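Extended Data, record DEAD-box ATP-dependent RNA helicase RhpA
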Amino acid sequence: MTFADLGLSPKVLSAVTDAGYTQPTPIQAGAIPHALLGKDILGIAQTGTGKTASFVLPMLTRLEKGRARARMPRTLILEPTRELAAQVEENFIRYGKNHKLNIALLIGGVSFDEQDKKLERGADVLIATPGRLLDHRERGKLLLNGVEILVIDEADRMLDMGFIPDIERICEMIPFTRQTLFFSATMPPEITKLTEKFLHAPVRVEVSKAASAATNIIQRLVKSGSKPWDKRETLRNLIKAEDAELKNAIIFCNRKVEVSELFRSLLKYDFDAGALHGDMDQRARMQMLANFRDGKLRYLVASDVAARGLDIPDVSHVFNYDVPIHAEDYVHRIGRTGRAGRSGKSFTIATKSDTKYIDAIERLIGNKIEWHDGDLSTVVASEGGEDDAPRRGKGAPRRAGRKDDDRKDRGERKPRERHARPSEDAAPAMVREEQPDVVETAVADIGERRSRKEAIRSENTERKSSDRNEQRAPERGDTRPQRDSNRPARQRHQEDNDSTVGFGDDMPAFMRIVAKV
């Protein structure tokens, strides 16, 4: 079967031929004819099987008739991430080069004003993430009552990112008579309920078992110690061992902070690496992806933002630096390699704490994953890698030759340099080194202060002794008045030494003014 047998228009067939494609993939052969007839479709296929073209090509054929009005798009495509939305826009530009269609992309990180201008011109194709779409709708810049075709792409990813309530709101804004194309790689129960609610007598096109991995990908588990420096060393050894067959690779981490740390570690060891995660600026993210596609970067350290639907055709290896917490993410991650019938390899670094996640992945894909060089029972406790030493415990000897770069690789802070305050006894020695001619003066000052302190201490001792003698005076027949022992010592001292201090002979001038009667 060729694309000419699917019923596409001559303009679309010409663009597909120019792109170098002649035969459709199974999901394209199953979905395109029904989409051209206006039927709702539920498409389930492995990632990397050409799901994007299975809705782009029939939409272009149907959009050849008619034009969009201002703020009223004719079609709507919902994507979970900015990268996927931008990638779908590229597909429409590539296959729609013989069409004069207005395409609007509504994603975060881009100015509202530019997007408003595109909507005012009228959008035949509107590609958006749910959040930014609702923002434009609430601002009164977008009307959805003219949408003829709705596409919900990567629905399982929408579920993971919490977009299902937004999807339900958007579907209620679109006419009931629309055509809905629903695509997903996995079908959890929540997605099944969503399809039952918004699809009407859909044609189910399932070309492979849901959540199954491609058979042309070699999958291996790699044991590692639990310390971060153990995993980094294991990854470096894997990369070096696969260097002969490795063209480029995506390295997946579970968290953004791990992406940044691993990226810095690879740069330290002179690996040509880049980083991609959700906190990056949109322009930086797109530039990083473009560099990786063009071969300017050999390694891309990424979070799961790069795991879904990104079309990078020739990725030879995928390394899971962290075992994914959700088993479905494993299928999407390794699907970045082995695309379009090519072969690929995936290596997943596992520690003893990852056992339950590995079991969940094996249950999902229905197969056991082979170990690369022995299972976790053969892991040897680490004493610290050559570049990553554990923090020194209490009482442990300090390692010699530790460098600041090692601390950075472990994420530790460099300890502050603390300067001890010189003691009073050390003052003469310091002065003697810096200013020998004032040594005798400094020593004399210190001695004078010590003598003054001793004199005050002696005087206080004599006063206390005198007070005790006065209290015992009546017993010895002393005729001096006895002090009140119940009064505080400070009060007794003030009363006994009560001497009013006045102005003396120098009376202020304002005191000499005669008051007027």
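Summary. The first strand starts at residue 41 and ends at 44.
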